[in-house]
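Run folding on both entries below.
>entry_1
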Amino acid sequence: MNDDPYKAALERAKADMDALHHELDRCTQAREELEIRLGKVRETIAALCAITGEEFAEGNAPGITDAIRLALKMVPAQQMTPLDVRKKLLQLGFDFSNYGNVLASVHAVLKRLEAKREIRKSKNREGKTAYTWIPRLGARAFRNIPSEKERVMEQARLLRRREKPDPSVASKPVS
C-alpha cells in the first residue's frame, strides 16, 4: 500500500492548520485593538457625561471582569495596582452601585485573571503588588508554561519516582 497520498494529505492538513492559527492570531489582535478603541470611546463618553451632568447608561455595559480586562488592556505595558484599576474603572464610567466593597471585588477579579494567566503579577517601584496585561498572542505563547504549583507538583512527582521506597524503612516509625 502506498503511503504517499496520505503523507501529502497530512502535509496539506498541517499547512491548513498553520494558516488557520495565523488567521486566528490576526483576528485576535484585531479584536484587542477594537476593544481598546471601544474603551477609549467609553472613557471619553464617561468624562463628557460627568461634565454635562448626563447619566452614562450603556446598554450592554461590561461586567466587572471584562471592565478590568479592558482597563488593563488600555495600558498594556504599564503596571497597575488594584487602586489604579479602580481609578481606571471610574474613568471608564463603570457602575459600582451593585458592589459593596469595590476594592475587594477588584482584588478577587485580579487574582482570577492572574490564575488564568491573562495578567502578570509583579511588584512596582514602590514595592506594591501590580498587574500587567499579557496580550492574547503573548498569552498563547505562555499557555504551555507551567504555573508555580504545576512545577512544584511535577518536581514532587519526579522525586517520588526516583526514590523507590525501601519496604523495611517504610514500616519503621519516623523519629
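>entry_2
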Amino acid sequence: MARGHAGAGLEDVLAEGESLSTAAYAAKRFEGLITPFAMPLLIGPGAISTVIIYAGEASKHFGLYGYGLGLGVIFAMGLAITAAFWLSGPITRVLGRIGMVVVVRVLGLILCAMAVQFILLGIAGATTGLMRPEFLGG
C-alpha cells in the first residue's frame, strides 16, 4: 500500500511484522470512536437546550436570583463532572462490570424521563388548553 494517502489501512496501524486478527483490529478501531461520543453529552445541543429550558423556568419563578442560582448549579455540576472524570478508574473498579451496566441503565432511565417531561412541557406550551402546564410540573 502506498504511504501518504488520506486513509489509514491495517498496514499503517500495525508495527513492522505485527499481525492483528479482524476482531482485535475492529476492537482497536472501536475504542478510538468512544471518546468523541462523550463530549456531545456534556456540551452538545441536549445540554445547551436543558440549560436554556431550566433558565427560563428559574427566571419565571425566581427572577434574577434564579439566574444566579442557575449559574451556581452549572459551576457545581462542572466540579462534580471533573471529580467524576478524575475518579472514573476507582469507580469502575469498585462497581465492576455488572455495577457499571446497572448505573448506565438507571441513568438512561432518568434521561428518558427528563426527555418525556421536556416534550410534554413543549406540547403544553405550544397548544393552549390541550394540557395544563401546572399538571406537568411546569
